[in-house]
Each structure stands twice: as structure tokens, then as C-alpha cells.
Amino acid sequence: MSTEPETTEDTGPGTPGTPEGPDTSEARDTTGTPDTAGTPDALNAPDAPDAPERDAAAGGDPEGGAEPAGAEAPGEGDGAAGDTGTAGGEGSGDRSEAEAELAAQRIERERIERRKAEKKAPIESGTKLSGSAADLLAAVRAVESGAKPLATVFAEPAPAPRRQAPEPVRRPQQPVPAVVPSGPAPEAVESVRRVLARGGAPEALAPQVAAALGEAAGDALQEDPWQLLRIGGVRPEQADGFARALLGADCGPDDERRGRALTVWLLEQAASAGHTALELPALTAALAQRAVPDPDAAVQSTLAEGEALAFQDALEEPGAPAPRQEEDGEEEERPVRVLVGLERYALAEESLADGLARLVNSPGEAAGPWEALAAGVTGGAAELARAVAGHGLVLHTGGEAARAEPAALLGAARAAGLRAFAVCHTPDGRRRLGVPPGGGDDASPASPTGTVAGVLAGAEGPGRDADGALDLDLLIVLDAPQLDVENAAMLVESLRDGARLVLSGDPAVLWSAGAGRVFADLLAARACPQIASRTPDPGPLGELVSGVGVGELNQVEAPGKEVVIVPVRDAGEAVHRTVQLVADSVPRAFGVPPEQTVVITPGHGGAAGTRALNSALKERLNPGPGRFGGFDPGDRVAYSPAPGRTVPGRVVTADADGLHLECAGAPVVVPRERVEQRVRHGWALTAHQAVGGRWPAAVVVLPGDAAQALSRPWVYTAFGRAERHLSVVHGVDQTLPKAVAETAAKPRTTRLQTLLRAQVPAAG
């Protein structure tokens, strides 16, 4: 049967319907999630980014390396392939984009905390933390306990007048090829390799272990073999086998070291599924299912060692009456939930809540340029401008067409003399935002747009003032649902008092690859104005996607065959029809070349996952021997510069330095030893990988065994990647309309709403 859109008549243009014929597709794990049998639902989020498919401690599939989702944990993300540690070997001393981003974040945190410490008396933390982390945690505790009013704890002197501020440091404008720096010391790698060999683990893990455990990694691993769980892709049963080989009779399921390591591993797994913490009962139940005899003792030991933090958050039911006063004057006890989380996410979430409260409670004066801001725009942008003029934090929601409103706000703010800048999730998001008049092109120093990663790494943006804050009056963040707690905290900490922050995005798309659900939590907290765009997405595609967003798979009129259904019976046929669509039918019918068509499928593994589809598409579109790690010049790739991030690119060449890519117009060099972990073929992506971009044409592949992976946000995101044409390779029978109508995003356990309620009154 022809797969050409102009000749496909099985279902025809319109709503994805029910294909004829039985479903005989092969069963597979469409999400690539690690074995979670017997694990509580809190750790099994179907909408979470794809997890690793490689069995690291046993070798396994080399292409299925750990795929990051924001944290250094097994099962992280949906990037090209997660970097689970710095590889050894020789390399350039230049820092990669990922390393530069992490270093910039660390320096920024230290600068801001040092500035606060100079202006405040020391605060006794009462914990095992030290330095800025202890001060931050103590400040949060002081607010929660009522020891100090919010204004005392977080108040800072007013910023210096604008005219007296020094010239901010500007970024270099020439793109610098990204090269991964050299790994850990060869002596440390060799020491770890010997320990791994004694325990029967693959020696290839040595560079990753050395990078994770430091210079004394060999001794640390010998003393505590379960530290192997720190490496992405290693599973508890593999770490147990390694420990038995090293410890012999001294190894047992009740070993305290095992309990701590499994507790941290489970919290990392939860973070890869989007949770910033786990409720204590869920955590202890998961430990019990991993054969830990005393789960409570394991959790307490982990807390005592400072490897995790515990919290008691009050349970607040909407509309519930306020707590009553007891006879002795005490307030009646309120029900609480006990949560346990890793320090990095706990402190990031608390820091984010503090920063948002600072913006909400000190918006500055709505005078001067702010007062005249709304006069420069019309329609929905004017409503947004009025809200921004009087508030430090504003949320803006809408679909793809609604991006015009924050774009208009950006142009009006700059025309009014305000220092305004907008950031997006990906370079393609910046392209779709456009540049306001007078803003310059994307490569110009005057360009008012960038990416979140670029601003945090210091490679893009307006520069910083003497206090380390972004030299801005207004920051607009597009694609806000993709913000995880760590990146969101870094952005908010970078804003000075009196600056405005606009978070704009489509709340129906998939949430962030990293831990947290920042935008959804802020919408639910109602702590600031929320402006909902009334600008609909146009055409049949806009109508179809809008219906999916409210749980309806509507039949749409598509006279130009903007939407075409291609029924298939099994996964093999799905791959065959997908290749025909990309290579022949879509280019002939719509003039869209293969390099401008994206294929989206629910998972990496299986007979119709990204691997199978990429293999078939490469054979058809760019055949070659794969002389460098399976890649040839001209291959489309998905490059993962940092956990949870995916950048589409193209292979340019390969030499002794590594694999040379072109990503978003910039050169990238991936060293030979990092290619396997950071680069995948990129004709076919998952929805999490594709969420930040759009293409002229999209082919969404739904094989029969993808049914369990489908949800309303997944379908909404996948269908919404198409600008002109959408083909749906349909083999899921009635599962698709059922998923759209009934399967919403699975909740994530976070604390942001609770933390905000303690500091910011609801906006109503």
C-alpha cells in the first residue's frame, strides 16, 4: 500500500482512527525504563524521560548507555545518551559546553551566597552542612520556624542606580568548538580497574567510577562496593554480585552500606522520573522490595550520613478550615507528610522558592518605562505588559501562536529603554520566537534572545553586574514547562531585586526532563498573576492539537492533507511505512526534504523504537560503513551536551580529535571516547527529545506495543512538533483516543507549592 500522503486512503486526512487488521506487533519496553518490578508507583512515572537500557555492570548494549534526565542517576533523561562520568584518556584542556555550564552555575551560587554572607550575621545551621549550603538551609529553617520575619532573613540593600553600575562583562561572540576535557588521573583509573577486575565487573567502568568517587576511588570502592551504584546503568543486583565477590562471607543484605547505597539509588531513580523527593512510606516500601531487612534503619543511616534530607510538610486540603486554637493556646496539630530527598534537589527547590518569593514581594515601582510599557503593544501582549508593570513574577500560558505575545512584550520593553532579554529551551525555540525590530540577528551582541543553557553557562546573555546578577530589568523565559528545579533556581537567583520575571509556556506539553514540575507547581500555587493567551493555533493541525490538550481526539477537516493517517498491522510494517514517508511521500507531496522531517516514537528500544527506525532511515538516506563509532559524514544526530538536554545536529567529519558535529550552526567536537555516551542517530527521536523544537513535517509512529507509553501530554507534544504536515503511523487501535481522554500526566512529588505558601499569599 502506498504511503504517499496524496494516495493514502485507509483513513484519510483527519483524526487518527482505528486501523483495520489485528495488532500483531512485537512486545517491547517502549520507554526503556529499568526493571521496576515491585517498585512503588512513585518511582514509575510513565511520562518520565526514557531511562537507560544498558546493563552497565554486565556490559550490555553499548548504544543503550545511560540517557540523562537532569540528574546524575540511572535512568536519567531523554538525551542522546547520558554521560555517566568523565571518561579517561587524553583530551584537550578546553571545557565543553556541559562543563562550562556546570562551572558557571557553581561559581554563580558561590558569588551570590558570599554576597549574602557579607551582609548578614552568621546563622547557626545545626546540621552537618557547611558554608553557603548551611547558611541557605538555616535561613529557610528560620523562616519556617518563625525565628525571623521574611523581610529580615532575605532583605538586601537596594541595587545601585543604573547609571552608576559598571559595564557588564560581555560574552565572546565567536563560537568556540566544544571539547570534553581530560578525565581523572590515570593512577586513579588504574586503581579502580584493579578493584573492578577482582569483583568481576567490567573494567571499562573504571573512568566513570574514578570520576564519581575522586582520587581515592579505588580504596573507596574496595571499602564500600555498593558505591558502584553511583554509576548510571548499574543495577542493585549487579552491585550485590560485585560486593559478594569482594567481601565474601562479610557481605549480607543487612549491611548498613548496602542500605544507604540503595536509599540513595532509589532517590536518584525518583529524580529521573521527575520527583524532587519521595514520601517516606514509598521509600521504605521500595527498600523492603529490594531485600533490605530494616528499611527505616537504612533511611535513618542515610540521613545521619548527610546523604539525604528529611522534611515534614503540612498537608493542606483546598478549602480546608484554618487550624483551631487549643485550650492551652497551642494551635491544633495539622497532618503532615514526611518526605526524603537528595540534598541537591532539596536545596535547589528551597532556593527557588526563596527567590520567587523575593521577586513577588519586591516588584519595584510601576513607574517610568514600566508605566508606559503597555502603550507599545496591543491585544494579549498589552494585558501581559500591564501585569508585568506591577508585578515581579507573571505566568503566561498558551500554544505555539501565543509566543507572539511575549515576543511583542520583549520588543516593547527594549523600545522603552528597559534592559530585557528572552531565553528558550532550545536554539530552535529562539528561532521561533523571532527577534523584535532593532534587536539584531541571533549572532549579534545586541540580540535579545538566547537559551537557558547559554545564559547559565555565560556564553549568551546580557552579562552581569558587580554583584553577579544578570544586568536586566526583565527576563522572559519561554518553554517554561521544560524548566527543572536546578536550572530554575539558578535563573531566579541571577535576578536582582526589582527585576521582573515572565515564565511563558504551554502547560499541556511534557514536563521537564530533570527533577521538578516548576511551571505546573507555580500555576497551582496561584502566587502571582496568570495571563492566559486567547490566540489559538491556526489550521487543521492547530485544531487537532488543541482538542488533544483538553482530552478530545477530534476529527478535523484537512483539505490540504495536513493530517494523514497510515494504518499498520505490526512494528515491521511501521518501520517500512515510516521510511517511505520520510524518503518519498512527504518530499513529493509537500516539498519537505527528509532533513526537515522528524520521526517521533515512544521509546528507544524495540522493533519500532528510535534505534530500529534510525538504522532503517540511515540505510535509506545516508548509507555508509559507520567508520567512526557507527557514524558517517551527513548523518543526522541527537547530541546530549549535558544531562537532560538534546540538540539536533549533523555529522561533518571525523578525525583524531573526535567526531565533528554542527549543532544549531555551531561546531562541536565530541572526543572519541565520548561518542558512545553523547551521540545518537537523530532521524528518529522520542517526544522528550523533540519537545523544544518544531519541524515542517513530523511522522509520529505508534506501534501496537506502544499503548502503555501513551498519555495525553505525550500525544499533545508529539503531534505539536509539526508545522505544516503530520503523518501518524497508527497501530494502537482504540488506545490512542483512550489515552488522550483518560491518561493525564502522572503526578510528581515536589515541595515547591508548600514552600511558596509559607512565604507568598495566594493571588486568588
Task: Annotate the secondary structure layout.
Blueprint: E1 12-13, H1 97-119, H2 131-145, H3 150-154, H4 186-199, H5 206-213, H6 217-223, H7 236-247, H8 256-272, E2 278-279, H9 280-289, H10 295-304, E3 309-314, E4 336-341, H11 343-361, H12 380-390, E5 393-397, H13 404-415, E6 420-424, H14 427-433, E7 449-451, H15 452-457, E8 474-477, H16 485-493, E9 500-505, H17 518-525, E10 530-532, H18 539-549, E11 563-567, H19 571-590, E12 597-600, H20 610-621, E13 636-639, E14 647-655, E15 658-663, E16 666-670, H21 675-678, E17 679-681, E18 684-685, H22 687-690, E19 695-702, H23 712-719, E20 722-730, H24 735-742, H25 752-757
Parallel strand pairs: 5-9, 5-10, 6-7, 6-8, 8-9, 11-20, 12-18, 12-19, 19-20
Antiparallel strand pairs: 1-11, 2-4, 3-4, 13-14, 13-17, 14-15, 15-16
Helix pairs in contact: 2-11, 4-5, 4-6, 4-7, 5-6, 8-10, 9-10, 11-16, 12-13, 18-23, 19-20, 23-24
- Which term fits the overall shape? globular
Q: Could you give the count of β-strands?
A: 20
List segments where confidence is low: pLDDT < 50 over at least 5 consecutive residues: 1-15, 17-40, 45-94, 119-180, 436-445
Rg:
26 Å
Helix content: 25-40%
Number of helices: 25
Rounded average pLDDT:
79
The end-to-end distance, rounded to whole angstroms, is: 56 Å
- Helix/strand-derived category reads alpha/beta
Binned strand content: 5-15%
The biggest sheet, with number of strands, parallel, antiparallel or mixed sense and barrel status, is: 6 strands, mixed
